[in-house]
Amino acid sequence: MTQKEQQLTELLTLTSRSITHMTAAMTALSFDLLRSNDPGVRSAGTRMISRLEAVSKELDQQWALISELTGVPEPTRADAVEEVQLHSAS
């Protein structure tokens, strides 16, 4: 890999890492919004989580490509959003 290619790969990695961290922060904020007593605020939090899920899926694709370019395994995602449905036992 040429020096320019290495620099471009590093730039892509840093950009994807920054977007990943920003997505995690916005997801945490969205879950905080869900705790609000205001229905409009809760609705906004729900919509934002859906949007961030789409961004997260695109980031997964970017990380896969970066992994192919660099030969380095994709980072583990401790910030992944997982949908959970709760049901009462009554």
Description of the structure:
- Helix 1 packs antiparallel against helix 2.
- With 90 residues, the chain is mainly α.
- Helices cover 71% and strands 0% of the residues.
- The mean pLDDT is 85.
- The protein contains two helices and no strands.
- The longest helix has 32 residues, at 3-34.
Number of strands: 0
Structural class: mainly alpha
Label the overall shape.
elongated
What's the end-to-end separation, in Å?
Answer: 62 Å
Number of helices: 2
What is the mean pLDDT? 85
Largest sheet: none
Helical content stands at over 70%
Cα radius of gyration in angstroms: 17 Å
Q: Secondary-structure element order, as H and E?
A: HH
Low-confidence stretches: none
- What portion of the residues fall into strands of 2 or more residues? under 5%
List the helices and strands and how they pair.
Elements: H1 3-34, H2 39-70
Summarize the model shown:
The chain is built from two helices and no strands. The protein has 90 residues and is mainly α.
Main traits of this protein?
single chain, 90 residues, mainly alpha, 2 helices, elongated
